[in-house]
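Technical note accompanying the year-one report. For the benefit of new consortium partners, we illustrate the data format agreed upon in the data management plan: each record pairs a sequence with a structure-token string. No post-processing was applied to the example shown here.
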Amino acid sequence: MNDFKALPDLPAPNATRGLVGWFKANLFPSPVNSVVSLIAIYFIITFLAPVVDWVLISAVWTGEGNAACAEATGACWIFIADRLPIFFYGIYPPDQYWRLDVCFILLVLSFGPQFFDKFPYKGPVAIFSLTAFPVISFFLISGGSFGLEHVPTEKWGGLSLTLLLAYVGIVAALPIGIVLALGRRSEMPVIRSFCIGFIELWRGVPLISVLFMASVMLPLFLPDGMNFDKLLRALIGITMFQSAYMAEVIRGGLQAIPSGQYEAASAMGLGYWKQMRLVILPQALKLVIPGIVNTFIALFKDTTLVLIIGLLDVLALVQAAIEDPVWKAVETEGYVFAAFCFWLFCFSMSRYSQKLERKLHTGHKR
């Protein structure tokens, strides 16, 4: 009987592993794909080369004032560094910046752990971010109590105001949208008609009109002596507007749930609200995570419209800064900075939603 000795496995060919293998598998798997890849690489390099030169190589990073950028062919980032406090804090009192810094740190500590699966206290932290954090932030930013100087909302602005509008709109629009979606599918005609009318009314007008009505027209219908803060009116308008869109997104998830799930929940003896809370809504919300996050991203970008009612968000302050006669030809730098701020937060929300989809297997992969 012959003895056979197993030979060790041979390594994969060099052409199928490493950087060469990646290029071959992803960019040059066939002659047609190779031609398309070469054309795409050419256009990318042609476009990126001047952009990189303007942003990094020929840019001016140090110096004082516009004179340092007079002969530069690249970006004048001195302008951004000089106006950075205004872009972040608006006209908030400089000696009170620490209050906004504390709020921002709390925001990061509240939502940062949600990106890490092994963080042990994600649930309590999430509850804190939805309950205690808004209250703490309000007293810190507004002041007037606990020995803090009162700062009127007219002085709130910049990126801090953008984050405030987006945060309140997101936190408030989701539960209201869920209630409206359930009401639109209710068997009670009064509730169903009210929810349908609310959704169609707010979805049928642009946000600019909503903000204008909330700021200018609403006070005309209030009793004498009664008035709401301009920022509060904007928050209410944004929340109601986005709630209508959120309701339709969630309604799509509810309609995607098979009728057997409703029947199974009823067969278990669960009441309506327990059915929704334990069986239907968890599945429906999981299915529409992309739509929900897409609505959140649209809300974040729509905060720039508050400029029409006199609230100065980060984009409004950038526009005001580039019109300063002290600085010349810095429009591009200002708008690039504003675009980067919005992209950073929107991209973070998008990546988190994708991670959440993979974790919950939203795509029902096998």
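Partners are asked to follow this layout when depositing records. The chain has a mean pLDDT of 84.
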